[in-house]
Amino acid sequence: MFAAMATSAFAATSLSFNLANDITVRSATAGALLDSSYTLYIGTYTGTPTSLATTTDFATINTNFTQLASASFATGGAAGYNGWANIDSVVFTGAQDTTFGGKALYAWISNGSNLNSVVTGFGNIPLSTAVPPVLDTGIGVGNIGSLTQVLGTYNVDGVSPAYGSGGNIVLNNSVAVPEPSAALLGALGALGLLRRRRI
């Protein structure tokens, strides 16, 4: 009877994610703190994280990312500064366990294009039948050393203006590398123009 009561009491999973109270996120080293044009996504990654490279953009990550929740970065939030975001009390029931429950949690920060960071190491998203089915996590100076920065970098010597000294997560800036055939065609075209000018 006690077990049945416990199961009914924990019929849903609650997940909260805090970024950050002592670490901020920047678009580049010593660059601007993120504002509401950037988004924090939490969810699962179905691709191979090690395949993410410096040329990986939003579309590539999005193909393999299953989103549980998202939030825009604050604009002039704590102490008037940008660079942080919170996702509070996302609740899902047992029907979503096959999608999220028991799988590794990933945090993805993006501008929807070329600036991205992917972080994991928070543990697995609880099953709705877990006791308790709650995960309260995030990124801060207390756990940044145990997290895996799959894409992007962490600048430990940076400064977080809103909270004093701290580190900064710096987004990866993907630069499109032209296909060899496209580069060759471009070079041939340039040579053709030079030859025409000489004639």
Kindly list the characteristics that best describe this protein.
199 residues; alpha+beta; 3-stranded mixed sheet; 3 helices; 38% strand; globular
Beta-strand percent range: 35-45%
The low-confidence runs, each spanning 5 or more residues with pLDDT under 50, are 1-10
Extended strand count: 14
| Helix coverage percent | 10-25%
Total domain units: 1
Structural category is: alpha+beta
Mean pLDDT: 79
Distance between the termini: 95 Å
| Gross morphology | globular
Radius of gyration: 21 Å
Biggest sheet descriptor: 6 strands, antiparallel
Number of helices: 3
SSE arrangement, N to C: HEEEHEEEEEEEEEEEH
Question: Can you offer a commentary on this structure?
Answer:
The chain has 199 residues and is of the alpha+beta class. The protein has one domain. Helices cover 17% and strands 38% of the residues. The chain contains three helices and 14 strands. The protein has helices at 2-9, 58-64, 180-198, and strands at 12-19, 23-26, 39-45, 65-72, 85-93, 104-110, 115-124, 134-138, 148-151, 153-155, 159-160, 164-165, 167-170, 172-173. Strands 3, 4, 6, 7, 9 and 14 form a six-stranded antiparallel beta sheet that branches. It is globular and about 45 Å long. It starts with a helix and ends with a helix. 28% of the residues are buried.
